[in-house]
Amino acid sequence: MIIKYAIRNLLLFAVTFLLQVAVLDNVQVYGMGFPMIYFMVILFLPIRQPAYVVLPMAFLAGLSMDFFANTGGLHAGATTLLGFARFFVLNRLEPQAGYEKEDVPGIYRFRATWTLSFLLILVGIHHLFYFVLEEGNLLHMGEILLKTVVSGLLSVILILLFNLFFFRR
Amino acid sequence: MRNLFLFIRRFYPFFLFLFLEVIAVILIARSNAYQGATMVNSANQVSGWFYTQNNSILEYFRLKETNIELAEENARLRATLGNYTEAGDSARTDTTERYIYSYLPARVINHSIHKKMNYFTLDKGSADGLRPGLGVVESNGVVGMLTNVSQNYAVGISMLNSKTRVSVRHKRSGAIGIMRWKGSDITAHVVDDITKTAGVKEGDTLVTSGYSTYFPEGLPVAVVTRSDLRDGSNFYDITSVLTNEIFSLDKVYVVFHQDYQELDSLETVAQ
């Protein structure tokens, strides 16, 4: 079971990462939409995964992106925050009955509203932090927010599509 | 002691998060430094290999464009060559004259245009004699400067990077200025320090000044799109648009200045 998860996650990371550097990094929608999905594997880790697994993985996923995109450490910073925030978001969204031991976030285990709010919040946090770090100051907050919303919606749509087809049982 | 242990156990995720975030911020700060001495860049075997593969597919879609560009460049070079041979018939015998600049052709295998700090990756590295601090040009403009070089690949800051500074000359008057990018509009490069005696007008050409060892003198860089002279100011506020097509970087030339070491050490001493 564990090996199955590990292989699936490794494959998911490889596919999303390649898609990111080969295609999505060359995409921009009206100068506002820059979809990012390479951190998807962090979102879809098993819910009970402890912080000493999630945080280093998130950092490394971001850092490998930085190596390809020449972004210094922007992706590493944003993805680490995503990994940390994920614990709180999962806590807030915990259903009445609680999580089961091997639960993985996603559309096949939870309701659509759960999945959608989970993705929107976390992708929003990631993108917002990324664009703030890139700008280096808070002077152009309007533009940063607009970029976050447009890019975030594109990213969430792509991640949902991946969730639908990649995780099919 | 036991309490401390429990405290750390309870809050370790936060400390781990803080630790990783601090590393990230240090990396970002180092990459934002002007020297660009960052370890995190795409001049490494893995991304270099990937971008080479990626580029070898994409270049088929650009073949026609590339052909036209090369033909145009050929025509231009042929025209200048013609001037030389006509004048050169009466035997040039001055052997002290030598070529200060030499060029190495290279390929851009990856570049970005929509970030605040944009970089490009070349398919040549230290094995071909490249080193950080070399200028990169295209047939019709300036591309950028190299910042990181590995054995087989090199990364440079492009003209669309807020760290990039290029010394330019107003072609008509000869006035010197510094060109930089403010980080958003790719058709708006700002030029500082051109004095009001220069008489800059829209449509004027800006060329490289030759004041640095990055680029040879007189290479076209940009065309002025707006020039204002504020009341009481001695310098123009100039906005310009680049002459090269920054969207489709492909074949470029790395510029070698033969005497860079001498110039460099001399200027360091003078400071």
Poorly predicted regions of chain B: none
Write the H/E string of chain A, N to C.
HHHHHH
Termini separation of chain B: 56 Å
- The strand order across the widest sheet of chain B is 1-2-5-4-3-12
Number of helices of chain A: 6
Distance N to C terminus of chain A:
14 Å
Total number of helical segments of chain B? 3
Main beta sheet strand tally, sense and closure of chain A: none
Q: What are the defining features of this structure?
A:
heterodimer, A: 67% helix, 0% strand, B: 271 residues, alpha+beta, 6-stranded antiparallel beta barrel, 6-stranded antiparallel barrel
Write the layout of secondary structure elements.
The complex is a heterodimer of chains A (169) and B (271).
Chain A: H1 2-22, H2 40-43, H3 51-69, H4 74-92, H5 112-135, H6 141-166
Chain B: H1 2-32, H2 45-88, E1 101-111, E2 117-122, E3 135-138, E4 141-149, E5 154-161, E6 166-170, E7 176-181, E8 189-192, E9 205-208, E10 220-228, E11 237-242, E12 251-257, H3 260-270
Antiparallel strand pairs in B: 1-2, 1-12, 2-5, 3-4, 3-12, 4-5, 6-7, 6-9, 7-8, 8-11, 9-10, 10-11
